[in-house]
Amino acid sequence: MNDQKRGLQAVPGQRMSLKIGVMGSAATGQDTETLQTARLLGEEIARAGCVTITGACPGLPLAAAQGAHTVGGQVIGISPGLSLDEHLYKYHSPAEFHDVLIFTGSGLMGREVVNIRSSDIVVIVGGSSGTLGELAIAYDEGKLIGVLTGTGGITDVIPQILKACQKETGARLIYDNHPQKLIEQLLEVYRTEHYQHPSCFCMACETVETQGDLATVRDPVCGMWLDPKCAGTTKKINDVVIYFCCSACATEFEANPSRYSVT
Question: What residues does the TRASH domain cover (predicted)?
Answer without folding.
Answer: 219-257
